[in-house]
Design a protein that fits this description.
Largest sheet: 8 strands, mixed
Order of helices and strands: EEEHEHHHEEEHHHEHHEEHEE
Structural class: alpha+beta
Distance between the termini: 10 Å
Helix content: 25-40%
Radius of gyration: 19 Å
Strand content: 25-35%
């Protein structure tokens, strides 16, 4: 039995370029790993095939077939090593909101890569695991690495960033999810409606905000709060207008920074300290503007084995 813990992420900056010919957008995506996370446990299967189970508040919304990135990760790793009939059972203990803009599915894919690699004693080099992760999706490589990193391209080309100190976050979980492709399409539509155009010709390739990078390197939470940005936020609010009330409730409760996390609908709030985060989470839970709220911290490491049999 191999158990791997993997973090959720918040995008402290999500700069979105124009729509490329291949259907993707160039990104300047500053990932930040937080302690709120999932655990994926791999055990030998009873026969050929990959089976999945899931527990946790959102377990009913998690696909238990090949649509799950954890299953796809196990199959991809097996194929890379020439394992024709992989036999493994994967159990996902789910704490990251489903379809919440925190890369929960991608995190599970990264965790499955690490768990199956350990279970099957493959010793796959780290750079190869990153290549496989990029095949699975744009956010999967960061879940392997953790910490804080700048993602370019589709987000899969990672550059670790210097960061000082610990930051305290609150995540307000909405009822239901938002489709990431739908949010990107809405971003394009809003840009066209505004007359700026939405193609890669119209929208400059984004870059990391120097003020945000300096704030992270200096350990300055107030400066980081002022630099938080998400080019998908307007699209998420367009598709889910109720998120504006959530953002307002968290700010009124004392958050020094607030934004929609990734493609949403989870909202992220930066607090001054741990006590402030606990108070903001309590206020959000009482506000009626979200399903629940979690206080956590970061940055933390990426996917790692936490329980290995003797």
């Amino acid at each position: 039995m191999i158990t791997v813990r993997v973090p959720a992420k918040v995008n402290v900056q999500l700069g979105v370029g124009g729509l490329r010919a291949d259907g993707f957008h160039d990104l300047a995506n500053v990932f930040f790993a937080v302690a709120l996370g999932d655990e994926v446990t791999a055990t030998p299967g009873d026969g050929p095939g990959i089976t999945l189970t899931c527990s946790g508040p959102d377990a009913g919304a998690v696909p238990l077939d090949d649509g799950n990135l954890a299953a796809r990760a196990a199959r991809l790793l097996a194929a890379h090593h020439g394992i024709a009939d992989p036999a493994v059972h994967l159990h996902i203990a789910k704490a990251i909101p489903v379809a919440g803009g925190m890369a929960g599915g991608s995190a599970d894919g990264a965790a499955a890569l690490v768990a199956c690699d350990a279970l099957w004693k493959l010793d796959t080099p780290a750079d190869v695991l990153l290549e496989l992760a990029a095949e699975l999706g744009s956010d999967v490589p960061f879940a392997l690495v953790g910490g804080v990193a700048l993602g370019r391209g589709r987000g899969e080309i990672l550059e670790p960033l210097p960061v000082e100190g610990t930051y305290h976050w609150v995540f307000a979980v909405a009822d239901g999810g938002l489709s990431t492709p739908a949010v990107f399409r809405e971003c394009d539509r809003l840009r066209d409606e505004a007359g700026t155009g939405s193609s890669a010709v119209d929208v400059p390739t984004p870059d990391a905000d120097p003020a945000l990078l300096t704030a992270l390197a200096d350990g300055d939470a107030v400066a980081l709060a002022a630099a938080l940005s998400n080019d998908l936020q307007a699209a998420a609010l367009s598709l889910r207008p109720a998120l504006a009330a959530t953002l307002r409730a968290g700010t009124e409760a004392g958050a020094i920074g607030a934004l929609v996390s990734g493609s949403g609908p989870t909202c992220a709030f930066l607090a001054k300290d741990a006590d402030g985060a606990a108070a903001i989470a309590a206020a959000l839970r009482a506000s009626g503007t979200c399903r629940t709220a979690h206080a956590t911290y970061g940055p933390v490491a990426g996917a790692a084995v936490v329980d290995r049999p003797l």
